[in-house]
Amino acid sequence: MLKTGESFESGFLEAINSSNVIILLISEDGIKQIENANKNGDNMLLEIEHSLENYSKGRCHLLPLLIGKTENKGQTFHKFNGFNVDRFPEQKHCHKLSKCGLSVRETIERLFKVQGEFVFSESFSKREIQDLAMSKVVDFENLKPHPEFKMFF
Description:
Elements (H helix, E strand, L loop, with lengths): L7 H10 L3 E7 H5 L10 H14 L4 E7 L1 E3 L4 E3 L25 H10 L3 E3 L6 H12 L13 E2 L1
Parallel strand pairs: 1-2, 1-6, 2-5
Antiparallel strand pairs: 3-4
Helix pairs in contact: 1-3, 3-4
């Protein structure tokens, strides 16, 4: 939870760093803004960087939800197809809070190497997202989640 007077960036980074499960909502339109992250700092990329860092150190489960597009008032669905990383710069992210040593492109490549889930629905509830996340991290043999289950999305 963001505290009064606390910067937005430090608030969401604290939430990411204290979460056991991180769900990244990734759409083609959403990641388009990252194409200029070497010139304009991008909060979404900052979230991705910190999430990948925590995931690589075994501090959390990471679940990218790859959101497809809908057309015709939700009648036509198109699977997420934004995997071409060539459009992302080979320079580092310029955000003042970015400590990632990778280029923007390398960060996005790392993101796409994490097993994600395709989401086709035009709208889905927070509860549906939580259920999906739980299905990935619950120990079904013992039928209970991690005792300190914290989620950020």
